[in-house]
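Memo to structure team: turn this sequence into C-alpha cells by end of day. - J.P.
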Amino acid sequence: MNTDTDAIRIIKILDPETAVVNAGENAGLRENEPCSVYSAVEDLLEDPQTGNKHGKMQLRKGNAVITQLGEKYAVIKAIQRQTRSIDKILALLGDVPAFGHFDNEISVGDVIRRE
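Reply from structure team:
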C-alpha cells in the first residue's frame, strides 16, 4: 500500500473530468489502465468520547482511466460506472470505456488507486 509520500496524486486539473497525475511509465502505469480517485487523506478520525483512533478517511470521487502517458506523468479521464452486466462484459473484451463525470469534484492532491 502506498504511503502518503509515495502515493499517486493529482498534480494538475485540465478540466472537470481530466487531470494529470505525478506518476507515469516509470512507475509502471499503462494506457487504458483503470483507476479510482479518492480525496486527499483527511486527518485521523478520533472518537470524541473515548479518544479511540479509527483511521484516516477518504471520499471516493469516481472511476477513471489512463488516457496518456509520459515517463513521469499520466493523464486520467473520468469514466462512467459499469453497472450493467453487459458493460462489464464489454470492458473485459477491451472496448474503450465510456467517458463520464466524477461523482465529486476532483482537486489537486487527490489520491489515485490502481485497480
